[in-house]
């Protein structure tokens, strides 16, 4: 979901050409234009064509509102228009796809296009952009289009000998909400087929008129130059870990590479360096604190750490209970003060107090969990989730980053219900995804989570049933969050809202099907793919210089 800027506009195609009852040529033009937009976004270079993309989307949206017959009657185009407009924040209803679902009940009428893999793929991708539980039509399309696509993959048909085969596999295995942007960009660059994109990209809808080779070269150059930046930033962060003595804490998991992957994989443009670095730093700190509260610290040490953070600048009055407490507190104190000073300059107001409050809220919630565990108290599911959405510790990672992505954020925005709801939905979705995958480990450590509580309070509910039952609230949170992020109105600026969605994707990335975060190897390949490994271009593509 790239934000688009509106500078350097080229004279648009006449709107009357796209009115109701337009010719089939209009459908071809719209389809080719949106294919261009799709390719640019998939390659990670759409920001270089922001004005042209905005123009194309605005014109397409007018056609959508006019219910252009040629768009509505061409299934693949209709699905693609819906997906790309919704992804870019335009208000489009899924109701127009009802005629597709209705046709599904009439197998003869489906025969013409459901054997068309490209159409099926467009329907499947569109179906994933649900923003409400009321959009059952999208769930229906997702179900049968996914089944048919999988059948085609298994059938041993001619599809397996085409580039479309790998595209279908990728779409089925990597929903847009469960992968990192930069990994997706890499996949699209490495699987970019010059021949198949040639005709689409040679059409004159972009003012710069890039060829397919130009697009590929831009994607390669952007990705490769970014990797150099990422490598430098990660080296700097590794030095910071040592300087902060965090590597001296025996109980702490070393997860810097994973947190930096989540930052570089989502906030990939060069100008977001400060946001990436603070995201990774605070991710490391929250992991250290989480491990300290879970296994590393005594009750006295934990109470001491909470008191120190509450005292903040007056912490010397109470002193440190242990060397471990000193290292943990000093790392938080130094990082937050440095971050607060930089953020305050960008925001033209003092935000350090707000950053400290975020940490106080986190530590108090973690202390509540410790007290529950030590006393044997079993909270209600509601009590647990209210507290656990905070102890999932996304606050210190995401909320400070909002100050570094561009817009000014007045204090009124931080107190706005929309801000709080974005945080609640993101944190709840992440917590539930984590709980489903970490139940066994946490149970062995004497910790309750939403899975075990559902079993305890649900009577005969099994672990497997509890995990399945939690999928519904996970889906609801994801859809509600995406709806808030895409909504044009609201107090929170769009670039800031997108950070909540990016973290939601990170949570899916690490906790879809496994506990990828706790593993030392599960995501190591992706770290290298985003940060270290050069692109591997297919032999059929001309080798390109990235200089």
TrEMBL record:
GO molecular function, one term: magnesium ion binding
Domain named Terpene synthase N-terminal: residues: 24-172
Superkingdom assignment: Eukaryota
InterPro entries recorded: Isoprenoid_synthase_dom_sf, Terpene_cyclase_plant_C1, Terpene_synth_N, Terpene_synth_N_sf, Terpene_synthase-like, Terpene_synthase_metal-bd, Terpenoid_cyclase/PrenylTrfase
GO BP field: defense response; diterpenoid biosynthetic process
Alphabetical UniProt keywords: Lyase, Magnesium, Metal-binding, Plant defense
Limits of the Terpene synthase metal-binding domain: 242-479
Cofactor: Mg(2+)
Region of interest: Disordered: 1-25
Signal peptide: none
Listed CDD domains: Terpene_cyclase_plant_C1 (cd00684)
Pfam families attached to this UniProt entry: Terpene_synth, Terpene_synth_C
Name of the protein: Ent-kaurene synthase
Organism of derivation: Paspalum notatum var. saurae
């Amino acid at each position: 979901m790239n934000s688009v800027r509106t500078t350097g506009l080229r004279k648009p195609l006449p709107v009357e050409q796209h009115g109701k009852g337009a010719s089939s040529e209009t459908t071809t033009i719209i389809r080719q234009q949106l294919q261009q937009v799709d390719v640019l976004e998939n390659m990670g270079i759409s920001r270089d064509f922001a004005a042209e993309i905005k123009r194309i989307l605005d014109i397409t949206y007018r056609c959508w509102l006019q219910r252009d017959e040629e768009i509505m009657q061409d299934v693949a185009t209709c699905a693609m228009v819906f997906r790309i407009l919704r992804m870019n924040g335009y208000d489009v209803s899924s109701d127009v796809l009802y005629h597709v679902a209705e046709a599904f009940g009439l197998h003869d009428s489906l025969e013409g296009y459901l054997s068309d893999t490209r159409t099926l793929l467009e329907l499947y991708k569109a179906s994933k952009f649900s923003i409400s539980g009321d959009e059952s039509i999208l769930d229906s399309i997702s179900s049968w289009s996914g089944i048919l696509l999988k059948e085609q993959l298994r059938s041993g048909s001619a599809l397996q000998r085409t580039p479309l085969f790998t595209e279908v596999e990728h779409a089925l295995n990597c929903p847009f909400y469960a992968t990192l942007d930069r990994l997706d960009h890499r996949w699209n660059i490495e699987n970019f087929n010059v021949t198949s994109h040639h005709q689409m990209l040679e059409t004159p809808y972009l003012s710069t008129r890039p060829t397919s080779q130009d697009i590929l070269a831009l994607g390669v150059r952007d990705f490769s130059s970014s990797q150099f930046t990422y490598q430098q930033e990660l080296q700097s962060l590794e030095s910071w870990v040592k300087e902060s003595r965090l590597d001296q804490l025996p109980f702490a998991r070393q997860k810097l590479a994973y947190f930096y992957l989540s930052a570089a994989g989502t906030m990939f443009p060069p100008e977001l360096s400060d946001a990436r670095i603070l995201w990774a730093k605070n991710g490391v700190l929250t992991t250290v604190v989480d491990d300290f509260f879970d296994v590393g610290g005594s009750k006295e040490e934990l109470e001491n750490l909470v008191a120190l953070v509450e005292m903040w600048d007056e912490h010397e009055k109470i002193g440190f209970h242990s060397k471990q407490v000193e290292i943990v507190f000093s790392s938080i104190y130094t990082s937050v003060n440095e971050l607060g000073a930089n953020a305050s300059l960008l925001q033209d107001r003092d935000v350090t107090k707000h950053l400290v409050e975020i940490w106080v809220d986190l530590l108090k919630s973690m202390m509540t969990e410790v007290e529950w565990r030590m006393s044997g108290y079993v909270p209600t599911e509601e009590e647990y989730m209210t507290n656990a959405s905070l102890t999932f510790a996304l606050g210190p990672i995401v909320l400070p980053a909002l100050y570094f992505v561009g817009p000014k954020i007045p204090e009124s925005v931080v107190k706005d219900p929309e801000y709080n709801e974005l945080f609640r939905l993101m944190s709840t979705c992440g917590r539930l995804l984590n709980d489903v995958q970490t139940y066994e480990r946490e149970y062995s450590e004497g910790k309750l989570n939403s899975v075990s509580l559902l079993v305890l309070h649900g009577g005969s509910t099994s672990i497997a049933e509890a995990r399945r039952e939690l999928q519904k609230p996970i889906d609801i949170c994801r859809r509600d969050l995406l709806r808030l992020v895409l909504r044009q109105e609201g107090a929170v600026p769009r670039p800031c809202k997108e950070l909540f969605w990016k973290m939601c994707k990170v949570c899916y990335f690490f906790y879809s099907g496994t506990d990828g975060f706790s593993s030392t190897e599960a995501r190591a390949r992706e770290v290298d793919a985003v940060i270290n490994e050069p692109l591997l271009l297919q032999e059929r593509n001309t080798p390109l210089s990235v200089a």
